[in-house]
Amino acid sequence: MIQAIGLTSNIHKEHPPAVDDVSFEAHAGRVTALLGAQGAGKTTALKLMLELQQGRGITYFRGRPLHRIAHPSREVGVVMGAVPGHPARTVRGQLRMLCAAVGVPVRRAEEVLEVVGLVSLRDERLGTLSRGMDRRLGLASALLSDPHTLMLDNPADG
To answer: Are residues 97 and 147 in the same domain?
Structure first.
């Protein structure tokens, strides 16, 4: 379960916080969505939850804040924006590099390529991927360590 408590973003200039005292629970085995218009604070809320942006409040992932989890990528898989990587690197090469970074066997790269339907594009360069294929690669990256939780920002984009 995820418990977000009192998430509040910092005030920017004279504008109110994008996220102001947001609290909710997301139960295991269920899909939970943050809905709102563009600019409503959905991405900001995710960044606060993932401790990628300063603010107030705390989020617990199965009872622990992210900074107290020894291997966060094994607990929480994240897709936010485009996949970072050199445009000349292949899809397979990107995933193999990430396998080494998170400490999972390199064969896991092939497994997640199959899961997200990118097997036929494994030798394509990152710079040639469409937005939709890039999002699939992001999902494959997030799934590498078989995390308990997936957090996806604009998952249907592209």
So the answer is: yes
